[in-house]
Amino acid sequence: MEKLKYSKLNYSLQYSSAETHAILANFIERYVDEEKLKRYILMWNSFIYKPRCLPVEAVRDIALPSNKLVFFYDEREKMLYSTTMKDVLHFVRNLEPWDQIDACIFDKDMNWVIAVTHEDVILCLGDINICRKN
Fold first, then answer.
1. What's the sign of the alpha-carbon dihedral 81, 87, 93, 97?
2. What per-residue confidence (pLDDT) applies to 134?
3. What is the pLDDT of residue 120?
4. Residue environment code for 15-36, b if the CB has 16+ CB neighbours within 10 A, otherwise e
């Protein structure tokens, strides 16, 4: 699979606008309050459920296989990518203090979501295990 680059994120596929809309429709139905979304614009700021809020450094403690395929949705750019957890973690670890990122990471089953916010926190919902690594 060819690796492409979006800013500093390695990804294998960038979805078309129609594909993005179809995938996000399911995501929004599951996790987002659409009335809040109209007001707050960002999906992570409009979650239906109260997320677990952690410092962005906790991304290293997410217990998912590094080769796990995930969706990475950049809310600012309105772009959806297919990538791996390894590449997402590398991307997040290498964010600069001035980088303004608002992104939702989830897999095809949509049983969990990790939101990386411009407020330097990650928000976690669903069946996601975060355990402190030594």
1. negative
2. 45
3. 87
4. beeeebeebbeebeeebbbeee
Answer left, alpha or beta for residue 110, where phi above 0 means left and psi between -120 and 50 means alpha. left
Torsion of CA 96, 69, 27, 53, to 10 degrees: -40
Q: What are phi and psi of 7, to 5 degrees?
A: 50, -110
* Angstrom distance (rounded) from CA 50 to CA 133: 25
Is the pLDDT assigned to residue 7 strictly greater than 70?
no
In contact, 88 and 16? CB cutoff 8 Å: no
Task: Kindly state the tokens that stand for 111.
Answer: 């049983």
Element (H, E) at 33: none
pTM of the full structure: 0.90
